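Lab manual, section 2.4: Encoding a predicted structure.

Procedure: take the sequence of the chain (272 residues), apply the prediction step described in section 2.3, and record the output as structure tokens. A sample record is shown.
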Amino acid sequence: MGYVYNYEDALAYDQWLNRPANQMTLELESRLMLEMIQPLCGKRLLDIGCGNGGSLLPFMGKGAYLTGVDPSPYMLDIAHARVGRRADLHRAYAEDLPFADNFFHYACLCLTLEFVDDPRQALAEACRVAKDGVFVGVFNKFSLKVLERRIKGIFRPTIYNQARFFSIGDVKYLFKALIGDVPFFWRTACLFPGRTHQFIYRLETSNLVQKVPFGAFAGIMVLPVPRFRTTPLALKVNSSPAKASSQVVSCPGHSTGTNMMPHQMDRAEPAD
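Recorded output:
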């Protein structure tokens, strides 16, 4: 089941997202996610662990059909107030999604893998329901920001004490064990402090900096091969033995026994 946000957690997280100082961080993460997924008009996208709906907002107005799931009823209440009817919201766990195989074009786990009970099963479910691509956004465990959060967690309780951090290599290993060598792409964001400065922002959005594997937010995109669940069907076979035919069948141009025609029998008699 993993860690499920309670009422206090949901309220604190929503307040953190609404702080002006964090808006640039959210913008960089959202921009990276949009650039890697590139949802097309009319496509279906599932946000696994949608939380308070913040990770759904970047996809609003793109023409995609949006669905979000989260195990926390408190998070879903905030998400309902934020996105309204622009997305279908359901209470569900990442390890057990209530959707058919390949029902969605894309699946997205944005800062969700850290809090699930079984990361491998969560990714397996994402690959099962999405046929065009799976995006995973994680707190990069090799970044300075994650190190800072771990140190803070030593001195005071924080939600990140419940988290399990991943690197790009960790996520790649999980996907490879599940679906083999499929196309795998990654970028990072939030590498530098002081991201409110325009120069730093331009650096953060450059392709060169996004290929540095130490940004606080790592975005990973895989293109899974569609898989279908099959049900074996019983094959009915007639077990009765076939009846042997008493009639002798000869090949054209060859005659045997009594199957010879009368005029053939006459020609077969020996001459006197």
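Check your result against the sample. The CA atoms of residues 248 and 259 lie 7 Å apart.
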